[in-house]
Amino acid sequence: MTTAFITHPSCRQHDMGQYHPECPERLDAIGDRLIAAGLDVHLHHYVAPAATREQIARVHGERYIDEIEAASPQTGLNYIDPDTALNPYSLDAARHAAGAVVKAVDLAMSGECTTAFCAVRPPGHHAERGRAMGFCVFNNIAIGARHAIEHHGLERVAIVDFDVHHGNGTEDVFTGDPHVLMVSTFQHPLYPYCGLDNPSPLMVNVPLSPGSGGAEFRAAVTDAWLPAMAKFRPQLVMISAGFDAHREDPLANLKLTESDYAWVTRELIKVARAHADGRIVSSLEGGYSLSALGRSVAEHLRELIAE
Ligand SMILES: [Zn+2]
Fold first, then answer.
1. Which residue, of 33, 35, 51, 174, has the fewest CB within 10 Å?
2. Residues 55-68: pLDDT tens digits?
3. How many Å apart are CA 210 and CA 207, to the nearest integer?
4. How far is CA 272 from the centre of its chain?
5. How far apart are CA 236 and CA 114, in angstroms?
6. Angle at which helices 140-150 and 53-71 cross, to 10°
7. Would you place residue 307 in the very low, low, confident or very high pLDDT band (cuts 50, 70, 90)?
8. Any idea which residues carry the catalytic annotation?
9. CA 110–ligand 1 middle distance (angstroms)
10. 302 CA to centre of ligand 1 in angstroms
């Protein structure tokens, strides 16, 4: 069993300004911690290709891609949403972030790697079909899932989202799609202030009150996610891996710890082993305490490597 680690130098060059929490140093914190924890040597490193226009258009359509390309600045920052800006490298980073997840799907489907983690930014799960928002430009996990379905012919893909913010973009893309089960937890109330309505039986969104910790999170996973996944029998498990529900995160008020991320990873490995030949594709979303982010990704990957 091998685990891929996929990133691209452009993901480090996307920079939304000195005080923006979604900062390039997040990737340094992850890389440094993986080396310090002795995990880096067990990973198979890949450079992400850029997603093709066709791959991105499966989720966003040609018009949205044209809009983003037109918004890409020659110098400085161009805000495409109150929280989201493009610098001259951002478009390249966004293409490679999506391409990393496509590559991860290809590696998992070919059997070259069983599990994969994409250390990418900008993140993706707030990006709707036609709207960038919440630090996200292209919906990386959705583009990967569509690739798994349309290129590899999968019929059932599960997307798991444990970021502290609701993955409104992923929900927007897949509501009503019989090929995709979305299970999530998120703090409510909190940005983007939606996700309570579970618009289809394949959307299993569990809001958690501010102050909730590992006990509440594990109950949501055990009582809501795992039965839904057992019934759905996913052929691929994909993870929108945001680590901003950590107790040290400055942007939210949940109280998860590294051990909760290790635990949920082990539970997802069991699901993947039962139905998906062990295939797991995980992609970075949020996580804004640099120390907690590094430690949490390390524990997530420690479990994937051990699989
Ligand atoms: Zn988040």
1. 35
2. 999 999 999 999 99
3. 10
4. 17
5. 10
6. 150
7. low
8. 126
9. 31
10. 22
Say whether 109 sits in a helix, a strand or coil: helix
Q: What is the pTM of this model?
A: 0.98
Element spanning 11, H or E: helix 10-13
Residue that the structure tokens 């998992």 belong to: 108
Residue found under tokens 């430690």: 295
Name the token pair of 90. 């951002």
Neighbours of 66 (CB within 10 A): 11
How far is it, in rounded angstroms, from Cα 6 to Cα 174? 25
Phi and psi angles of residue 269, each rounded to the nearest 5 degrees, phi first: -60, -40
Candidates 186, 156, 187, 192; CA nearest to 174 is 156
Quick check: helix, strand or coil at residue 250?
coil
Mind listing the pLDDT tens digit for each residue in 162-206? Answer: 999 999 999 999 999 999 999 999 999 999 999 998 889 999 999
CA–CA separation, 236 and 116 (whole Å): 12
